[in-house]
Design a protein that fits this description.
Structural class: alpha/beta
Radius of gyration: 27 Å
Distance between the termini: 49 Å
Mean pLDDT: 92
Bound molecules: adenosine-5'-diphosphate, zinc ion
Low-confidence stretches: none
Strand content: 15-25%
Shape: globular
Helix content: 25-40%
Number of helices: 19
């Protein structure tokens, strides 16, 4: 389409960029990858259009390289639309795609190391993290920088492991993986039941017919949604198309991998953030060249340079992890739908607890709902009941004398729950206790003068982590030593409220012979750690597992028959309009862990408000009624999905500067029909890592063109140094 010598616009993967003009040194198409120099940097960019700068011809630089690989015109359109939608620049969107700096260079020659599993060395947490990093990369050799980046350990740790012979130098040449071992076959091992087959038939017909269509695969926990979308994945794959299976990181379990392998006769190509640089490069190139046609990955897999996509599946579509909030704000589910729409292929969103947004799209006839109403193999749904904590008051427990904390302790487990735990253990079954709060105690306070331990850099309290032996800030990760006494009045400090470590203490005293395990992001520092726990659950080496939301998803523990939710009220009173929806989803998912084997399960929700509509809805299993009530409330409040929101977050290192910029924004605020600007208000967490934060919220009805209004508004204000302005379209987080 373009000839050597033509002047074209090249989009560069850079935030502040909408394209520069270059002279092509070889023929190229729209979307062709090229290498260009900008100042002293070399970038891989793409041909984005005809050049239109008013520079004299002799000032226009030549491209450094023109590659035969390219993005499709549809992909360019997707970049453009995504930019309009999210208000990220096209260059920032391209940076999500072109994030492999050496994608077109020969593999780098670097010293690699193998992990020597036979070495005898004391296993510290850091060394375990290194072992896990190798494990999550198929035990392939790694460079030192890979080990440090993936295991998040220091150079000293790696050096020590090399000296002790745990890491052994091996070849220096990077061999490119032969991806033929990932070729999928139809193993014919799965027979779908009637409902599954009907759902798969619909999707498969859409794949055969081609063109965009969107499905909500709406099936209760344990109904076998995975096998349905595997069936459709095979349909697209066997037609020669590419398939992307997206899921939250913590759903990428060994259980899932082995199901995949049984179905397709090959291990999946897995994409997530902890891969070696070499592996990322290979997968990226493999996808670009069409050597890899099926990938199982987290949200960033959407940005691989896909060729001929024929199907995207977004599993657990309601999951918060699809929303990216750091490097640009986008919702991977929505951007996947956009990609499918522009390129014209079907997309499947799967969930047992679909988001309100998706249910509204079903109601509007935009997505077709495919329901799976029974658990596969006839397992019954668990019986869900509340325990009224106003009547069944948890008993105190005692820590025997001799320790610092000896004496009576506030209990959190009601007698009703304790009795059921006892019965369940007696029958040889397993118990899960859910409490979505990390650490031992969320509040560290002096009872005499009221002093509370606060993070010095963030406006949040410090949490006492007993295993760590420290106070930890959950915003910035800062740790401090335990205060021996109140720094203000010198009196003793007390630890208030309960996190999961505290619940474990109570369990260990009330059920001394039960074997317990803790599961949270503190103990499950890698997927491997989670795998070890899952294996222990499967072999029956754990009786009671106590965990946060990490436990809520994906896992299939056949012998787990009781789920106890320690504090079902915790999420009910958030200020965010999605609080009820999110609490419902979370508790419903947790409940779905119980009774997945032959023995029916029980779920007990401890609450002070058994009459609360969210809890009533969970107990009756009436998701549809609950969601329609929640959605009706949102409709009358004009909240999404019935109104649009864009958050503008201003952050600065000095409060005076922050105030000034907010004033400038107020003065420049647009007055557009159907658009309401709220704020600025101090963010709920006003201070993070010593920066101060204010928020504006722009609300509009469905017809208002919010994005252009906001875009125009913020360009009117020049930001001084050390002030950041973040735009979050359709925000999920209001902190
Ligand atoms: P969901 O994702 O809907 O919660 P899963 O896909 O985890 O459900 O399925 C629940 C269990 O039933 C899994 O152990 C799965 O392997 C099994 N299963 C589902 N469908 C089939 C099928 N058609 N044939 C055999 N096993 C199945
Ligand atoms: Zn005090
Ligand atoms: Zn902090």
């Amino acid at each position: 389409m373009f000839k050597a010598g033509d002047i074209v616009k090249i989009l560069i993967p850079n935030v502040v960029n909408t394209g520069y003009d270059y002279r092509l040194t070889a023929d190229a198409d729209l979307g062709s990858f090229v290498k260009v120099g900008v100042m002293n940097h070399k970038y891989i960019g793409v041909v984005y259009g005809i050049g239109d700068s008013d520079l004299p011809e002799n000032k226009i630089k030549d491209t450094l390289d023109v590659f035969s690989d390219k993005l499709s015109v549809n992909d360019l359109q997707w970049i453009q639309k995504m930019s309009t939608w999210t208000l990220m620049t096209p260059g920032a969107v391209l940076r999500l795609i072109v994030n492999i700096p050496d994608a077109f260079s020969p593999p780098r020659v670097e010293q690699l190391y193998k992990y020597n599993a036979d070495s005898v060395v004391r296993m510290t947490d850091a060394r375990q993290a290194v072992a896990d990093a190798f494990d999550s990369n198929y035990n392939e050799p790694m460079s030192i920088s890979d080990v440090q980046n993936i295991a998040k350990v220091s150079g000293a740790v790696v050096k020590g492991m090399i000296q002790r012979g745990v890491l052994i130098p091996c070849d220096v040449r990077v061999q490119e993986t032969d991806f033929s071992k990932y070729q999928c076959k139809d193993m014919g091992t799965v027979r779908l039941n009637e409902e599954q087959a009907a759902a798969a038939l619909e999707i498969n017909q859409a794949i055969d017919n081609g063109g965009f269509s969107a499905y909500l695969l709406d099936g209760i926990t344990g109904s076998g949604k995975t096998q349905v979308y595997f069936d459709s994945a095979w349909r697209a794959y066997s037609r020669g198309q590419s398939v992307l299976l997206m899921m939250p990181e913590i759903a990428l379990t060994a259980q899932f991998m082995s199901r995949y392998e049984k179905r397709f006769g090959a291990p999946p190509v897995v994409w997530h953030s902890n891969l070696t640089a070499a592996r990322r490069r290979e997968i990226w190139r493999g996808v670009l060249r069409g050597d890899i046609r099926m990938v199982v990955g987290t949200r960033s897999a959407l940005f691989l340079p896909w060729q001929n996509l024929g199907l995207i599946v977004v599993d657990e579509e309601h999951d918060g992890s699809y929303k990216q909030e750091d490097m640009g704000n986008y919702h991977a589910r929505d951007m996947a739908v956009l990609r499918a729409k522009i390129s014209g292929f079907p997309i499947v969103l799967a969930s047992a607890t679909p988001s309100a947004e998706t249910l509204q799209n079903v109601a509007d006839g935009k997505y077709k709902q495919l329901r799976l109403t029974s658990r596969f193999g006839g397992a019954s749904l668990p019986k869900i009941e509340t325990i009224d904590l106003r009547e069944d008051k948890p008993e105190q427990y005692k820590i025997s004398s001799g320790t610092e904390e000896s004496g009576p302790q506030t209990g959190y487990l009601s007698q009703g729950l304790c009795e059921t735990i006892r019965e369940t253990l007696g029958a040889g079954h397993q118990v899960m206790l859910f409490i979505n709060r990390r650490g031992f105690a969320p509040v560290v306070q002096c009872k005499k003068c009221g002093w509370v331990a606060q993070c010095p850099d963030c406006s949040v309290g410090m949490t006492y982590h007993k295993q760590l032996g420290k106070l930890l800030c959950h915003m910035c990760g800062r740790t401090t030593t335990l205060p021996e006494k109140c720094p203000v009045c010198g009196d003793a400090v007390s630890y208030r409220g309960a996190g999961l470590e505290k619940i474990q203490e109570e369990v260990n005293i009330k059920f001394p012979s039960a074997r317990t395990a803790l599961v949270s992001s503190d103990t499950m520092i890698s997927r491997q750690a989670l795998e070890r726990l899952v294996a222990k659950m499967e072999t029956g080496d754990i009786d009671i597992v106590i965990g946060t939301q990490i436990l809520a998803k994906g896992h299939h523990f056949p012998n787990l028959t009781l789920v106890g939710v320690v504090d079902a009220d915790m999420g009910l009173f958030g200020t965010d309009f999605r609080a009820a929806e999110h609490t419902f989803q979370q508790l419903f998912q947790v409940a779905g862990r119980a009774g997945r084997g032959t023995v029916p399960g029980r779920v007990l929700l401890q609450t002070y408000q058994p009459e609360h509509p969210v809890l009533k809805a969970i107990c009756s299993g009436n998701r549809d009624a609950f969601m329609s009530a929640d959605m009706a409330a949102r409709r009358s409040a004009k909240m999404p999905p019935y109104g649009q929101l864009i958050a503008i977050i201003v952050e600065a290192d000095k409060e005076t500067k922050l105030k000034k910029v907010c004033e400038m924004l107020v003065n420049a605020a647009p007055a557009a029909a159907g658009v309401k600007i709220m704020g600025p208000i101090a963010a709920q967490i006003y201070q993070v890592r010593n920066w101060y934060r204010m928020r504006f919220l722009v609300a509009g009805d469905m017809r208002a063109m919010l994005q252009p209004v906001v875009k125009h508004w913020v360009t009117k204000v020049r930001l001084p140094a050390n002030v950041r302005l973040k735009i979050d379209v359709n925000p999920q987080n209001f902190m």
